[in-house]
Amino acid sequence: MSKLFTENQGQVVGLKLGEGALPGSVVLHSGEGTGGDKFGAASDTLIITSVNLGLSVNHQFTRSLGSSIYLYVFGDDFGDLQVSGLAFSSGTKASDCGLGASTGQTGVDGVLEFYNKNKTSKIAGSKVPQVTLQIGEGNPFIGFLLGMKLDMSDPDKRISRFSFLIRTLPDVTALP
């Protein structure tokens, strides 16, 4: 059985496929589609650890006189997407665990660079920056990067936690 955090501070053990990890991938891209820069793709200091996705229907319930209730549906609503992960300092490398190649950039630098480059307020002319989250082979979610949180509360292990707040666009292809 693998230990995720060993007794030596700042050391991480990675799990590979075939050793209890689930197959699949989650990739965050800058821009619409999968042609943009991949977040943390060439880095040994960043890993995505969780994705929280909230989707809902745009609707309204209306009561009328008597006992009738009417439901009006207006298609899908915007989705809420939170992408979270770990950012390692330059002294704690995920490549030691088989998770990437070295770039020399710290994980915190990579998180801040991706946010500053792709945040929604970085409008260039009439083009609003978008990001795409690709889950597995299909299922791309296109949205706008609205916020970021960075938690550096574990300096002994030199590991920071980050999360990106993204609002996804509704699926308009499902409309009649």
Compose a concise summary of this entry:
The protein has 176 residues and is mostly beta strands. The chain has one helix spanning 107-118, and strands at residues 26-30, 46-54, 57-63, 69-76, 79-88, 131-135, 138-154, 159-168.
Number of helices: 1
Q: Low-confidence spans: pLDDT under 50, at least 5 residues?
A: 1-6, 15-23, 92-102
Largest pleated sheet? 6 strands, antiparallel
> SSE order, as H and E?
EEEEEHEEE
Query: How many extended strands?
Result: 8
CATH architecture: Beta Barrel
Shape: elongated
| Helix/sheet category | mainly beta
Number of domains: 1
What's the pLDDT, averaged over the residues?
Answer: 74
* Rg (C-alpha, Å): 20 Å
Strand order of the largest sheet: 1-6-7-8-5-2
Helical content class: under 10%
User: At the first level of CATH, what is the class?
Assistant: Mainly Beta
Distance between the termini: 52 Å
Q: What percentage of amino acids are in beta strands?
A: 35-45%
CATH topology: Elongation Factor Tu (Ef-tu), domain 3
Q: Can you give keywords for this protein?
A:
six-stranded antiparallel beta sheet; 8 strands; single chain; 7% helix; Elongation Factor Tu (Ef-tu), domain 3; elongated; 40% strand; 176 residues; disordered N terminus; mainly beta
Please, could you describe this protein's structure?
- 7% of the residues lie in helices and 40% in strands.
- The chain has 1 helix and 8 strands; from the N terminus they run βββββαβββ.
- It has one helix spanning 107-118; strands at residues 26-30, 46-54, 57-63, 69-76, 79-88, 131-135, 138-154, 159-168.
- It is elongated, with a radius of gyration of 20 Å.
- 21% of the residues are buried.
- The model is unreliable at 1-6, 15-23 and 92-102 (pLDDT under 50).
